[in-house]
Structures are given as structure tokens and as C-alpha cells.
Amino acid sequence: MTAAEAGTDGVRAIEAEAVPTRFARGWHCLGLSERFKDGRPHTVNAFGQKLVIFQSGDGRLNVLDAYCRHMGADLSQGTIKGDEIACPFHDWRWGGDGRCKQIPYSRRVPLRARTSAWTTMDQDGLLFVWNDPEGNPPPPEVTIPRIEGATSDEWTTWVWKEIVVDTNCREVVDNIVDMAHFFYVHYSFPTYFKNIFEGPVATQIMKGVGRPDARPPAKNGEPQMRGNTSVASYHGPSFMIDDLTYHYDDMDLHSVLINAHYPIDANSFVLHSGIIVRRSDKLPAGAADAMAVKLGDFILRGFDQDVQIWKHKTRIDNPLLCEEDGPVYQLRRWYEQFYVDVADVRPEMVERFEFELDTTRPTEVWKQEVEANLARRAAESRTP
């Protein structure tokens, strides 16, 4: 008997299978590359195990299983010597390809002296690692696109934040189809919302207007933010690039927002947010840098709003939806492709799917709510 069948009197029961112990196939961002280029090994807990990241003498960033195959010592507690990471226990030297290159006190290295090495990519100031439970290398067509401005003096440098979230990472991916939560959780006002899924890419296109009941009015002389346009795409299971434009009275502010994560284990993940801002005549270098920091803090507060929901909600595989909730089941079908063997990827997981949500009803109701909030606030301000 299923949980739904166990319900009585037509009450819909929540169904939830155990979270998968398998981790998604694809590129995962571990953070800013520079963080790992300080001449020391670094520990990262990801994919249910401990990893060590180190930069070899040739400048390459390498990722290995953190535990030495000799006697089990933690390589992240060792030292970098030339192109190898040296074990703190017996000084076995491990290369970025996972092979033991040298044992100083031994005449020869055992033929089977190998450990797990992960394929890495250092791109746009970010370090990526490839995970595949089948052990295959990344196919050429599965890529992370280059990010406009990430290496340009016309843009700011990355403002980067990260937090640990104690839930399964499917929760964060669900947001790509969830228009309504932007109003109720993040206090924004979407007016246009569309999703496109195709191959390994899932896109959300959203336009919105400002909420005068939720955002303080601009101070004297400052431009007022009127709305925003967002084109956000997950490239694979965990790395989203959002071309995000804020529309002000006298200018458009162009930014690129990163929303990325990697699993620590089945019930926790590291959530990254990063942003760069394009400089302009109206937003020169110093002002753009300050705006990037301000937006970075604002976006982190938005993620914290999500986290508060995730902390208290339950996992649900059979959500009860209304027609304005968007294509939740189609998104999860798309997401499933990363959790099965390549041979088991079905056409419906990767075929092109488009859905434009009818925003007529939400826009009408939300406009009334905003006006009611403003009227109540005005009445309260007149009360002695």
C-alpha cells in the first residue's frame, strides 16, 4: 500500500522516497580558484567523502581522495612539494593524476600505488570538479559556458558567498520553476515567467517590477529601481548562470549572478552565490565595486530566506499543484537525467520543453496586496 492509498476520506498523503545516495553526474563548482592557490592543501567534504585540493608547481589545481592509500593518513594535512602532495605520515608523494610519484625511503613505487583523481576545470576564476558515478570523463558537449565579464576590467571581480544547507540539494533546484515563492519569500513581484528545458540545460526567464511595500524608497538624488529582467540557466545539475539586469530610472545595471552548489552528502550541500557587476559611465569602478558588495549581501539574504523554508519543510515527491505553480514534475524529470546511468537517460528527460506561465491572476492579486499594504502603512503613520 502506498502512502497515498493509506490516506482516508480523500485526504492527500505526502509521498517521499528516501533521498538518493548517488550523487549527480556533472560539473560542480567548488568556489573561487584563488582560494586554493595559496601553496597549502585544502580539505573539501563533497560527494560523501573527504577530498584534498592542491596546486602543483605547474599551476594546475588538482583534486584527490584525501586519504593516502598507504596507511590512510589525511593528505590535506600534508604539504605541497613541487608537483605533488606529500603525505604527513610517511612522505609518499602523490601527483594530480592520482599516481604515487615517489617514496623517498623506498627504491621503487608499488605498481598499484594509485588513488582517486578527479577531473578539474579552472575557468573564469572558478574551480569545477567533474563527478560521474560511472567513472566516465566529461563528454565534449557537456560544458560550462564562459561568463561575460568574469575576466574583463569592464566588470567587477567576484563577490562570493557560501553557506552550508542541511537538506538534499533537490530543494534548491526546484526554485527554477517556482514563480510564486519569489513574491511570498523574497518580496519581489514577477510579472513574466517562462521555463525552457533542453538537454542538460534548464532555463528560467523572469521579468518583474519593484515592490514599494517591501523595498524602501530611494533617498534624495538616488535613482529608483523599477524592475528587473533575469535569464537564469542551470548548466547541468548544480551550476546556474543568471544574466540579471536591474532597471533604474536613469540606467540599466547589468550583473551576472552565480547560484551553485555541491553535495556534502545526501542530506547537506554547500550553496554558493557569486556576483559581478558591469561598470559604466553612471556606475564607475568604485561605485560598481560597492554595488557588487551590496548586491552580494542582498542575494545572500535571499538565500537565507530560502534556507529558513528548507529547514522546516518536508521532502515531497507528489506535490499538490495548482495551474500557476509551474512545471514542477517536468523539472524533476529533467533533473533525473543526472542521477541515472547515461544508458538509462530517457528522451523525455532531455527533449525540449517550454512552458510560459499565465501571470494574469497572480499579477492582479499581488497588485491588490501591495496597494493594501501601502494603504495600511499610510493609515498607521497618521495614527497619533
From TrEMBL:
<dbReference type="InterPro" id="IPR017941">
    <property type="entry name" value="Rieske_2Fe-2S"/>
</dbReference>
<dbReference type="GO" id="GO:0016042">
    <property type="term" value="P:lipid catabolic process"/>
</dbReference>
<keyword id="KW-0753">Steroid metabolism</keyword>
<dbReference type="GO" id="GO:0016705">
    <property type="term" value="F:oxidoreductase activity, acting on paired donors, with incorporation or reduction of molecular oxygen"/>
</dbReference>
<keyword id="KW-0479">Metal-binding</keyword>
<dbReference type="InterPro" id="IPR045605">
    <property type="entry name" value="KshA-like_C"/>
</dbReference>
<keyword id="KW-0560">Oxidoreductase</keyword>
<dbReference type="GO" id="GO:0008203">
    <property type="term" value="P:cholesterol metabolic process"/>
</dbReference>
<keyword id="KW-0408">Iron</keyword>
<dbReference type="GO" id="GO:0051537">
    <property type="term" value="F:2 iron, 2 sulfur cluster binding"/>
</dbReference>
<comment type="subunit">
    <text>Homotrimer. The two-component system 3-ketosteroid-9-alpha-monooxygenase is composed of an oxygenase component KshA and a reductase component KshB.</text>
</comment>
<dbReference type="InterPro" id="IPR036922">
    <property type="entry name" value="Rieske_2Fe-2S_sf"/>
</dbReference>
<dbReference type="GO" id="GO:0004497">
    <property type="term" value="F:monooxygenase activity"/>
</dbReference>
<keyword id="KW-0411">Iron-sulfur</keyword>
<dbReference type="InterPro" id="IPR050584">
    <property type="entry name" value="Cholesterol_7-desaturase"/>
</dbReference>
<dbReference type="Pfam" id="PF19298">
    <property type="entry name" value="KshA_C"/>
</dbReference>
<protein>
    <recommendedName>
        <fullName>Rieske-type oxygenase</fullName>
    </recommendedName>
</protein>
<keyword id="KW-0001">2Fe-2S</keyword>
<dbReference type="GO" id="GO:0046872">
    <property type="term" value="F:metal ion binding"/>
</dbReference>
<dbReference type="Pfam" id="PF00355">
    <property type="entry name" value="Rieske"/>
</dbReference>
<keyword id="KW-0443">Lipid metabolism</keyword>
<feature type="domain" description="Rieske">
    <location>
        <begin position="27"/>
        <end position="129"/>
    </location>
</feature>
<keyword id="KW-0442">Lipid degradation</keyword>
